Amino acid sequence: MPTEERYESAKKIYAKIGVDTEQAMKELSRIPISMHCWQGDDVSGFEHAGALSGGIQATGNYPGKAGTPEELMEDMDEALSLIPGIHKINLHASYAITENGEFVERDKLEPGHFRKWAAFAKERNLGIDFNPTYFAHEKASSATLSSEDNEIRSFWIEHGKRCIRIAEYFAEESGIPCCMNIWIPDGFKDIPADRTAPRARLKDSLDQILSIPYDKNKVLVAIESKVFGIGLESYTVGSHEFYMNYAARNNLLCLLDNGHYHPTESVADKISSMLLFSEKVALHVTRPVRWDSDHVVLFDDETREIAKEIIRNGSDRVLLALDFFDASINRIAAWVIGMRNMQKALLYALLLPNQKMAVLQKERKFTELMMLQEELKTYPIGDVWDYFCEINRVPKKEDWFQEVQRYEKEVLCHRGRK
Ligand code: RNT
Ligand code: ZN
């Protein structure tokens, strides 16, 4: 049956429970997802100075990894051509594009080093999000913004300030606000003797970074907490409580990464509380398998639950980004699968009779609520999704994979192993 016919039939089925599929698709196409550049090269960046560090790890060595700005941009284009809608790209400071590839220290970075990225985004109508890079650097081997060494701490404070300038430049060039997210790996492998001093130093470092004047409508500063990292299992300076309080006091965005909490904690559950006290919240959607493993985002319960909260609380109040890095499979497919799954989860949430279910809860009709929630799982979302892909002129179902296979054969395989 043609896609349109299947869609028309699905439309009727949803209409029966009071769900408008047209409205759902309209809203879905208005939700930008920030696609992280670092899935394209296993978080390597272009400095070629050191290995990944900071307690995070990309595993696998699937051939064809992007090694240059041109290759990474080409790969991002390939991925974006298979994802419906208009999105944003998410960059790290370690992806600066310098003159002849010369090394520029992180405390010397300037907007000019990101001119090519700004042009790339502008040509494609994409917004840009940005992250200072506080890892994979010799000065990050022990600590960064919480360092007891004043010279090291100043270096990283200066990096943060420079990144605010770059974020502002991105916002000006693209005409779209830039979310600048600060994440640092600082912590201890074993039980600390003093939990307060490093946090006090981090607090002071953030105060200093944020003391520079910048346009708060253009740069939305976010701070990302974590529970632990590899080799940093016992204590993380930038914990959830630290940043939640810092963000509330200083009117910044709290960024919740669903790999950064204890395994049975639900980030979906946190969103409503955050939004009762802040105008907006930022997310890194990932898939933690037993630990903060950063697997590709699936169309699974956790992602759907997060999507429901985004839709129910207002998608314009959530800054949505993905954060995973799988080097064991085709990296472009990883992007496409993760992005499309996030969109499917959002569509799933948009196709729920949310008002009706809230009333059932209010009336404490829990049997009916459970029944309905379960029946809704087998409603024809796939027919709406295929139609959404069709009207957005991207391949439907698994059809996009042929293109990734062609690209792998004709482009990736000629890059050699890096
Ligand atoms: C690390 C954080 C952080 C990074 C990226 C590369 O645990 O999740 O967001 O993944 O900045
Ligand atoms: Zn993250």
The proportion of residues forming helix, as a percent range, comes to: 40-55%
Number of helices: 14
- Contiguous runs where pLDDT drops below 50 for at least 5 residues: none
User: What structural class should be given to the helix and strand makeup?
Assistant: alpha/beta
Strand content: 5-15%
Chemical compounds bound to the protein: L-rhamnitol, zinc ion
The first-to-last residue Cα distance is 45 Å
Q: What gyration radius follows from the Cα positions, in whole Å?
A: 22 Å
**Order of strands across the biggest sheet?**
4-6-8-9-10
According to CATH, what is the class of the largest domain?
Alpha Beta
Question: Biggest β-sheet, characterized?
Answer: 5 strands, parallel
Q: Overall mean pLDDT score?
A: 97
What's the domain count? 2
Can you offer a commentary on this structure?
- There is one protein chain.
- The strands form three sheets. A five-stranded parallel beta sheet has the order 4-6-8-9-10.
- With 418 residues, it is an alpha/beta fold.
- It has two domains: 1-30 and 353-418, no CATH class; 31-350, TIM Barrel.
- α4 (115-123) packs parallel to α5 (150-174).
- It has 14 helices and ten strands.
- It starts with a helix and ends in an 8-residue tail after the last helix.
- The structure holds L-rhamnitol and zinc ion.
- L-rhamnitol binds next to loops.
